[in-house]
Every structure is written in C-alpha cells, then in structure tokens.
Amino acid sequence: MKVSYNWLKRYIDLSYTPEELDYVLTMAGLEVDSMEYLGEGIEDIIIGEIEKIEEHPNADKLVICQLNTGDELLQIVTGAPNVVEGARVPVARTGVELPNGMKIKKTKLRGEPSNGMLCSTDELGLSQERASGIMILGEEAVPGEKLVKYLGLDDYVFDLDLTPNYARCLGMLGIARELKSLQEDVKVKRPEIKINNDNKEDIRDYVSIEVMDKELCPRYTGQIIKNVKIGPSPEWMQQNLKAAGIRPINNVVDITNYVLLEYNQPLHAFDFDTINEKKIIVRRARSGEKLITLDDQERQLNEEMLVIADTKEAVGLAGVMGGANSEVTEDTSTIFLESAYFNPVNIRKTAKKLGLPSEASHRFERGIDIEGVVEAGRRAAYLMQEYAAGEVVSGIIDIYPEPYQPLEIVLETDYVNNILGISLTAKDISQMLNKLGFLIKGEKEGLVKVAVPSYRNDVEREADLIEELARVYGYNNIPVTVPESKQQGGKTSQQSLEDISRELMISAGLDEIINFSLQGKEDYELFRLPEDSRLREWVRIKNPLNESYALMRTSLLPGIVELLSNNAKRQIDRMAVFEIGNVFFRQVGEEPFQQELKLAGGSMGYPEDSWQSAAADFFYLKGVLESYFSRLGIDSFLFKPARQSFLHPGRTASIELDGGEIGYLGELLPAIITELDLKERTALFQLDLTAVIKAVNLDKKYSKLPKYPAVERDLAILVKNEINSGEILRLLKREAGDILKKVEIFDLYEGDQIPEGLKSLAFKLLFQAEDRTLRDEEVNELFNKILKLLRNFFSAEIRGN
Fold it and tell me: I need a surface site. Which of 54, 168, 346, 739 has the fewest CB within 10 A?
C-alpha cells in the first residue's frame, strides 16, 4: 500500500514531519518498507516566464532569453527550438545540480553571459526518452514557484508492508483512524458528500437487482448516474493515483479507484446501456460459462465463482474484475455504480483459480467494512456529479438481508496487565480502545465490555484487543521484565538428556541437523513399510500448504536419508549426522495424537581402515551407541539380530534395554542406496529417548589409577555362524571375574580354512588386579575358566595356529 503524505493530511491534522511519520507508522504496526520524496533531485528547480527572446549575435542556433523568475530577471542562452515569448518553463539557476549530476554554473556561450538553464523533461528525470525541446508548462504556472509544487511532486510516499490483519489500512481513512489513536484531540475528517437533490426520478424506475446467493454476497448496493461526460479526471486526482501506483484512465474509472484507496471499498462502474433488460443479477457462474474480462482475456468460469450478470450473460466477475462487454468507454452516458461486500474466501479462490489478482480482489479477500459500503458508493456518486457532470438518480438500492451485529468481548483488567506486564485501569483501557473506534458498552469491577466495529474484522477475541492496547500504549513503553516461571530448579531430566545426547553425538564426530516435522507420504514410499507398520499411523494436517507437508512425521529417518542423499549427489564422500526431535502417532482417545522424543543418526562413507571395513558405517554407529550408553551409565543394553522393511536383512540389529526394544541399527537396503545415489553400506539408527531416560545413571564413582601392571592375552575361537559376538562378550563380562578388566573383539574370519557353518572370532583380554601383581598361574587359571565357559555355553573350540 502506497500512502501519500499530502493526501493523508486531507483526512487528519498530522503533527508529524514525514520522517517522524515513518517511525510512528512502523511503531504502530504499519511497517514502512520505504519512504520516497517524489521530487527527489528537482527540489530547487523553479518556474520562469520567458518575457523576451533575442537572436544571438554570434550563433545562428542559439537565442538569448530574458526570464522572470518571480524575484529577479535572468538572462539564459539556449538552443531549444520550441522557446516562445510568454511560455512558462522550468529553470535551473546557477548552483543547482540536476538529477543527471550536471551542476549549473554561470558561463558565457559564444560571448554572451548565461545565468542558468532551461530544462527538458529528460534532464529533470521526468522522462526516459530524449526530449526534442524544453518542457513547456501551463499558463496557470506561477513564475518563482517551485516546479515540484506545480507538478504535485512536493510529496512523500510511504510504501507500507501490511500484514493481513491490517487490511483496514488499505485505505486512507483506515490509516487516518490508526493515527488518530496516537495523537491527542484530533479527529478524522470524513470526505465531502453533497449530492444534488434536483433529480426527482427514482432509481427503481431504472434498474432492478436480484441477489441469488446471499452467502457469497451478504450486501449489494447500486446507484444510477446519468448524463456523464467521459474525459480526464482532475489533475489533483491523477497525481494522487500516480503516487499510489495506479495509472489514470478517465474520470469515471479514476473516481472508482480514488474511492477504493480512500475507503478501502472496491467499486465498479458498468455502462448501464449495455445491461440487458436493465436488471442486475448476482449469481454463481453456470457450468462452462465464459467471460471476457477488462484485460481482454477470455476466462473459463465454474459454478464456485460469483458473477454479476444481466438477464442474458455475465457482465463482471464479482469482486475481481469487470467484463469487457459492460466497460465504460468514451460513448458511455449512464453509469450503474456497484458497491458491495463479497465473501472473502470465495473471492480469494476465484482470483487464485483464474490467476487474476487485482486491487479489488486484494481487498475483498482480506475483508472490507460491510457497514461502509453505502457511504463509499455515495462518495463516488458525488465525485461523478462534480467531475463527470453526472446527474445522480435519487435513491440507492441496498440489498442487506442480515445487518451487521457487533461482536462483544469482555476484557479483565487483571488479565490484560498480566499479559502486557503493565498496570492499566478499566478507565485506561476504555479510553485507549475508544480512540481506536471500539465502542465501550460498560465498565464494572475490573471488567470492560467492548463492541467491535464493522471495519475491525481482524478482532475476534481478548488477545486481539490486548494487542491493540499494546500498540496504543507503545511497544517501546512496555518495561522489560523476566517472565515468571513455574518451573522449579534447573532443567528437566528430558532437557538434560537432550543436552548430554547432543554433546556426546558431536564428540563422536556426528553433525547435528534439524528437519521439518511435516512430511508427505512420498517420503516413506522408499521405506517399503508394511500396511500394519506403526510408521503409517500419521497425524494429518487439516489445511496443509501442499501434500509434501501434509503429515506429522512418524520417524526421523526419512529426513536423515534425504539429507545424506542430497549431499551424496553433490560429491560429498563422507558424512555422519544426527537429529533429536519429536515424532507423532495417531491414536484414539481424548488426545488425537501421541508425541515421542527420538534420537536418530546416519553415516555414509566411513573410512575402511579396519577389519570391519566391509561394514564400516554400521560398526562406526554401533561404536557410537556403545560409547553413548556407557557415558550414560547404562550397561544393560543388547544388540540383537532383527528385521526392518527398509534395512538390510542380516545387517540389522534391534537395540534392547531391560528386555524391551528401544530402537534399531542397520544398513539401508542396497536398492534404496542405489536409487538415492548414496554411498555403499550407508547405515542408520534410531533410539527412543523416552525409554533411555528411565535407565540413565549419571552417578560417577571414583576409582584409583591402577598401580600394578596388566596382562594381555589373545583368544581365537571357532563358533557357529548364528552365535552373536555380543552374547560372548556379555557372558565373559558377567562370569569371568573381577580381574578381567576389558574384552575386545579384534578379528572376524570366515573362509576356506574354517569349517562350513563356523566362524573365527579373536578377542583381546586384559587382566589386572588392584592390590597385587598378577602371577602367570592366576591368569592361566582364569583363562582356562573362560575357555570352559565358552565350551559349555557356545560349544566353542580354540582355533589352532
């Protein structure tokens, strides 16, 4: 919305300079994107009258002009071919700098002094094309007057970035109302409306109106203005329209646009002589109906769209654009003037469906003042009377079956003060809201009853009124306070676990990512989920932006996989990431969904520099999780072979804690890896942090550094393929005794030298006592005990050299 400073002053006495108004508007919530002085660069150009022209004695193509500039007579030499005595022209005196950077100096041209310059439109930056002569002004131009004042460019234009809840400020009167609330003892000056009553005819003798869909058109009014003379609108009106970014067309069309910007009320003028049977019908479009709009484009309509029609065909697309078949032309003599209120949702859908945004639809779809429809229409009729020589036929047809009933809201002063952190009385609240145009219905024991005016369709509840109070009070006047917290002590256990998890993942070499919580079904298609999978229990958004963001996620893994894929396609060879976030599941009951906190991660391209190179990413993440559990004081976790629809069979493990599954770890299916251009053996994991938090033990016990040396032994055994190495490690840690301090697996071998159905596992055992140096006999005894345990539990055999 472009707002002219001079135009705005017609409706309210402003106590602000343009620079001050810039700040005031922004602080009132009407953010100013930019402020432009229309006369930028030509502020010092004045008007001069050529009183005398003489031939130059030393040049055939130059003349000497004597100019009256109001307070002095200037001699200027020029070569302009169109100078004549008596002409009013723009003059740049010595010392003035033109928009193109030229600085005017006192000079001599072929021996004759010249004290300035006569200017053309392109030299003044008023035209992009090179002019053939100087700019000639009208006879009403006054010598000595500033050119910017004569051209109406002595004005500032504010470009407002209005949010939808400020739709009322898409008109000058709406902005004036906002400024009234910020100033003391000022009133909004209503535009003049003085329609002659000489015409004794009745509008109902001219036209009839039928509204067939009152839901889509709650109010429709019409007037007749006859004997209009189509021509240009007055200069001041054209200047105001140009400042607002609207191109002047003719007096009738310009008046409808002028009132639109004045009242925020779109109007439309029909050539009444083109209306069949002199009847206006407001109806839904018929199936397959077409309309050529004012932009000469044929529009295919549907039954959801509202049209203005006569008894034969549509003559306008309601609230969006008029039809070419009823356009006002030079031959128009009688105007049917429409002023109406249309359903905002329907107008928005129509404009979007046809790709036809307009100044009218922009306002209708945000909601206008249904009670201001008649006044805006009468204002336009008055202006057509004054500037198009029109005769306004008596009466106005107003179809308004359900008049506006103000919404009433009760405000509690204690609640207001608690929200804003200030101290307002009921009287303060009443005065502030009254300045904004709200009607105060009563005050009682800390309560204020407020009626919402029709032009404030953005106010629906207490919070909306509190926002208005904050604006009037001044955001910068509200003291800075620390919000009161009901939380006792520091962070919750969940918050602490999130912090620890984040720290441990980063220290293990993973980068944190944050994905959207909204996803689409296509994000899960590659995961080959069975029909009964819990990951299909999506919570659907009621009004999604599009289907790609229609579902609340049930897993963090689709987002992680997409991110790894995008990076792999950009030649990123190595990447490890993690995310901490909520997932959501649909459920039946009082709560429509269940929320769970998860930790998930992924790795691709891990360096193949160990015996685990064939599954480096898998074992890297497994090591990360083992370290993670260890740091959290959890030692009752297990990795067990498992299956997931999107993970490789035989390379997938469930993660169990105290007998229950809390997550899984595995490699992606090769087919998924290939389709997404991922690195081979890309691996993922996901944990339920809600379950992890119950087992966390962060109590640390002090232990002395060992004084006595340790003894290391290697052990290579043969076991059946189906035996998991994790089970062997857990057995040894549980049964081998206190002096076995550490067990590590460092080799896995399956090949020609190993009998079929068996595999070789090699472990490194570290023995150490806290109170003595171990003797070989002690170590051998325990080593033999370990061999016996392995034979008894796993039928293990020692592998020979």
Answer: 54
Q: Residue 357 CA to chain centroid, in angstroms?
A: 19
Which position has the higher pLDDT, 182 or 7?
7
- 786, burial (CB in 10 Å: exposed 0-12, middle 13-18, buried 19+): buried
What is d(CA 564, CA 570) in angstroms, rounded to the nearest whole number?
Answer: 10
**467 assigned binding-site residue:** yes
Q: Are 438 and 396 in contact (CB under 8 A)?
A: no
* Cα–Cα dist 450/410, whole Å: 6
Cβ contact 295:327 at 8 Å: no
The CA distance from 144 to 69, in Å, is 5
Q: Are strands 593-604 and 637-641 parallel, antiparallel or unpaired?
A: unpaired
pLDDT of 346 reads 96
Quote the DSSP letter at residue 704. P
| Tokens linked to 546 | 């599009």
| 613: confidence class by pLDDT, cuts 50, 70, 90 | low
Helix (H, G, I), strand (E, B) or coil at 240: helix
Residue (of 690, 697, 694) closest to 635 by Cα position: 697
Identify the structural domains of the chain with CATH numbers, from first to last: 2-35+159-180 (3.30.56.10), 46-150 (2.40.50.140), 203-399 (3.50.40.10), 408-477 (3.30.56.10), 493-695 (3.30.930.10), 711-798 (3.30.70.380)
Q: Mean pLDDT in the chain?
A: 91
CA angle, residues 209, 213, 215, in degrees to nearest 5: 125
Inter-residue contact 691 to 599 (CB < 8 Å): no
Asked whether the whole model's pTM tops 0.85, one would answer: no
How many residues would you count in the chain? Answer: 801
Beta bridge partners of 90: 47
Of 258, 222, 225, nearest in space to 381 by CA: 225
With beta carbons less than 8 A apart as the criterion, state whether 720 and 757 touch: yes
776 is in an annotated binding site: no
Joined tokens for residue 214: 């009152």
Q: Which residue has the tokens 């441990």?
A: 504
Supply the pLDDT for residue 129: 84
Question: Which of 381, 374, 389 is closest to 194 using CA atoms?
Answer: 381
- Structure-token pair, residue 651: 């390379």
pLDDT interval class at 29 (50, 70, 90): confident
Per-residue burial over 626-662, b = 16 or more CB atoms within 10 Å of its CB, e = otherwise? eebbebbebeebbbeebebebbbeebbbbbbbeeeeb
Helix H or strand E encompassing 75: strand 73-78
DSSP-derived 3-state class of residue 785 = helix
Question: What is the rounded CA–CA span in Å between residue 4 and residue 704?
Answer: 80
> What secondary structure, in 3-state letters, does 316-337 show?
EECCCEEEHHHCCCCCCCCEEE
Residue 276 DSSP class: G
- Beta-bridge partner residues of 586: 593
Per-residue pLDDT for 801 more than 60?
no
Q: Which residue has the tokens 């590659």?
A: 526
How far apart are alpha carbons 417 and 478 in whole angstroms?
A: 11
How far is 625 from 635, CA to CA, in rounded Å? 12
User: Is 60 exceeded by the pLDDT of residue 610?
Assistant: no
Inform me whether the pLDDT recorded for 612 exceeds 60: no
**Burial status of residue 530 (CB atoms within 10 A of its CB: 0-12, 13-18, 19 or more):** exposed
Closest CA to 622 of 664, 560, 658: 664
Cα separation, 667 vs 326, in Å, equals 69
Distance CA 80, CA 364 (A): 51
Distance of CA 789 to the CA centre of its chain: 66
For residue 67, give the amino acid letter. Answer: L
- The span from the CA of 652 to the CA of 89, in Å, is 88
- Name which of 283, 281, 282, 273 is nearest 206 in CA terms: 273
pLDDT tens for each residue of 327-341: 999 999 999 999 999
Half-sphere exposure of 666 (CA within 13 A, CB side): 23
